[in-house]
Automatic annotation (TrEMBL):
Keyword Ribosomal protein set for record: no
Protein name: Leucine-rich repeat-containing protein 39
Function recorded in the entry: Component of the sarcomeric M-band which plays a role in myocyte response to biomechanical stress. May regulate expression of other M-band proteins via an SRF-dependent pathway. Important for normal contractile function in heart.
Compartment(s) where it occurs, according to its Swiss-Prot or TrEMBL record: Cytoplasm, Myofibril, Sarcomere, M line
Domain (Disease resistance R13L4/SHOC-2-like LRR) ranges: 79-187
Keywords carried by this UniProt record: Cytoplasm, Leucine-rich repeat, Muscle protein, Repeat
Recorded GO CC terms: M band
SMART domains: LRR_TYP (SM00369)
A Pfam short name: LRR_14
PROSITE patterns, per the entry: LRR
Assembly notes: Interacts with MYH7 (via C-terminus).
Length: 344
């Protein structure tokens, strides 16, 4: 009995020794594999960094990282060795994500990552207080973080053709230097309140969205000189649009407008308008041009069309008569037929 117990103890001791040796060997192999993977990562980082350095150029005194049509789905952390960069231009690289460490590039003036596959803007973007231009058009962004409002030097923001952006945080009204904003080809149903409150905004493109109407408060956009609203679903214009005293270009083609506000005839700064492809109630024929060159240059649904339309609209609606103490207003429509409306 004693011999059996001793034998069992010896077997267990040998087994324990071997298990320890097997475990140690397994741990050694795991550490070796991790070390090899680390070496591979270090090597890949070095190779990537070498490639990145080759893409750095100087133009007009700026240090620029420029990559076009090369696959860079992610950007390596070794990029932090190039924090002197003032401009990124990465187009058609398949980039999936703006790196979280973007906020450490304090010298950035221009960040142009258009035509990639970026799905979100990191909150760290707000650390770039010297950034003047942010161009993220043709990506897959769905929302804009409120931290972007901390980019107090921002003058140009382009978010066109992201398809699914439908609103902006109200904090963006704090972008006091923003003059250029492109929100075309997204999912907006109204002009965001933040946009209406941007004091320096001069150029706005909200074409190819789902706008159904313009807010009455649009008249307070006093700095705006160019407004693109083509390819929406706008059915009428508010009278307050006439308060936009600096508006020089207004594009409203491919909407659902039936009338043009008469007050627009008094918009002295307006130099170019486009009302093409709207179901306007009146069919207006422009007077003949004095020369063939004038006829060729004339915009058929432009400024002259607008003034002619307003004039004819007022004339057709302004034929008064008195009958039995009541005012009769005769409305003549596009085919010359008339209807009588009695107003007591």
């Amino acid at each position: 009995m004693t011999e059996h117990v001793a034998c069992t103890g010896a077997v267990n001791a040998v087994k324990e020794v071997w298990e320890k040796r097997i475990q140690k060997h397994s741990d050694d192999l795991k550490r070796e594999k991790q070390f090899q993977l680390k070496l591979v990562r270090i090597w890949e980082e070095r190779v990537s960094f070498t490639k990145l350095k080759e893409k750095v150029t100087r133009e007009d005194g700026r240090v620029i990282l420029k990559i076009e049509k090369e696959e860079w789905k992610t950007l390596p952390s070794s990029l932090l060795k190039l924090t002197q960069l003032q401009e990124w231009q990465l187009h058609r690289t398949g980039l999936l994500k703006i790196p979280e460490f973007i906020g450490r590039f304090q010298n950035l003036i221009v960040l142009d990552l258009s035509r990639n596959a970026i799905s979100e803007i990191p909150r760290g973007i707000g650390l770039l207080t010297g950034l003047q231009e942010l161009i993220l058009s043709y990506n897959k962004i769905k929302m804009v973080p409120k931290e972007l409002s901390n980019c107090v030097s921002l003058e140009k923001l382009e978010l066109a053709v992201n398809r699914d952006i439908c609103d902006l945080p109200h904090e963006l009204s704090n972008l006091l230097k923003l003059t250029h904003l492109d929100l075309s080809m997204n999912h907006f149903t109204t002009i965001p309140a933040a946009v209406l409150s941007m004091p320096s905004l001069e150029w706005l493109d909200m074409g190819s969205n789902r706008l159904e109407q313009l807010p009455d408060t649009i008249g307070r956009m006093q700095s705006l000189h160019t407004l693109w609203l083509q390819r929406n679903e706008i059915a009428c214009l508010p009278e307050t649009i006439c308060n936009m005293r600096n508006l020089g270009t207004l594009v409203l083609s491919n909407n659902r407008l039936q009338e043009i506000p008469a007050c627009m005839a008094g918009m002295a700064s307006l130099r170019f308008v486009n009302f093409r492809d709207n179901p306007l109630k009146l069919e207006v024929t422009l007077p003949p041009s004095q020369s063939a060159d004038d006829e060729e240059d004339r915009e058929l649904f432009g400024l002259q069309f607008m003034h002619t339309y307003i004039q004819e609209s007022q004339e057709r609606a302004g034929i008064f008569g008195v009958c039995h103490g009541q005012i009769l207003i005769i409305y003549k429509y596009r085919y010359g037929s008339g209807n009588l409306k009695v107003i007591s």
